[in-house]
Amino acid sequence: MTKPIIGIAANQHYLSNQDFFNQPFTYSPQGFVNGIHQAGGLPLLLPIGSPELAADYIEKIDKLLLPGGQDVSPCLYDQEPRPKLGVTSIERDSFETALIKEAIKQGKPIFAVCRGMQLLNVTLGGTLYQDLSEYEKWQVKHDMYPTPPAFALHTISVKGDSSLAPLLGEKTQVNSYHHQAVNQLAESLVPIAWSEDQVIEAVESREANTRILGVQWHPELTHETDPKEQDLFDFFVQEFE
Ligand code: MN
């Protein structure tokens, strides 16, 4: 059977030492590569580039995966940067925005993780809290860094008739490494999981013919020790069409 080709939107990393003349490196967190391999897919890295390349890249892949990383540039949802905004990359945002639009246009399924889910929401017309301190009902610790992700941190409730419920049940625990969160949800998305303080922890598409799944936690960090997180990769690679 042909392996589905999963395009992973790559990031750029600058080493902090003098190795290799401080050249940036194009990379993906290894957990995404391993999770897709294990699910029977063929991961393919999509390096940050001109948004004009998005159509050509999306034509080459079967599905798109958007990993976590930098904060989303607030200019994309018409806000000034506030004091608690973290590092952003407008080059990455512009390229991934183009990938999202093109994947939807070409009918290719999208799985978006953490920042990926946030950027997806913004691209479709939603807004974010630049930092959870802007959210009045904030009660749960959502950034467990630098605690390693070996144990899930907080509880989520999953919508019963969503694509996640058969994989996760209606209540489960997930890790959490985010300080930004969805504020206004894009009209074309439906919330399908929430933390106890009602932060949106997962979304899917409202339209049945557009396959979008976004999660606010990091399955790539725990897929080897937590079977339900590998189930997410298996579902995305093998069933989400
Ligand atoms: Mn969380």
Distinctive features:
9-stranded mixed sheet; binds manganese (II) ion; 24% helix; two-stranded antiparallel ribbon; alpha/beta; single chain; 6 helices; Rossmann fold; 241 residues
What this model shows, in words?
The protein has 241 residues and is an alpha/beta fold. 24% of the residues lie in helices and 23% in strands. The protein has six helices and 13 strands. Helix 2 packs across helix 3. The chain is globular and about 45 Å long. The site of manganese (II) ion has 8 residues, from loops.
Task: Kindly summarize this structure in a few lines.
The chain is an alpha/beta fold and 241 residues long. It contains six helices and 13 strands. It has a single domain, classed as Rossmann fold (3-Layer(aba) Sandwich).
Distinct small-molecule ligands in the complex: manganese (II) ion
The coarse overall form would be globular
The tally of strands reads: 13
Number of helical regions: 6
Summed up, the domain count is 1
Largest beta-sheet details: 9 strands, mixed
Write the CATH homologous superfamily.
Class I glutamine amidotransferase (GATase) domain
Structural class: alpha/beta
- CATH topology-level fold name: Rossmann fold
CATH architecture: 3-Layer(aba) Sandwich
Order of strands across the main sheet:
4-1-5-6-13-12-11-8-9
Share of residues in strands: 15-25%
For the CA atoms, what is the radius of gyration? 17 Å
Into which percent range does the helicity of residues fall? 10-25%
The CATH first-level class comes to: Alpha Beta
Query: Please, what is the average pLDDT?
Result: 95
Order of helices and strands: EEEHEHEHEHEEHEEEEEH
Ranges where pLDDT stays below 50 over 5 or more residues in a row are none
Beginning-to-end CA distance, first to last residue: 16 Å
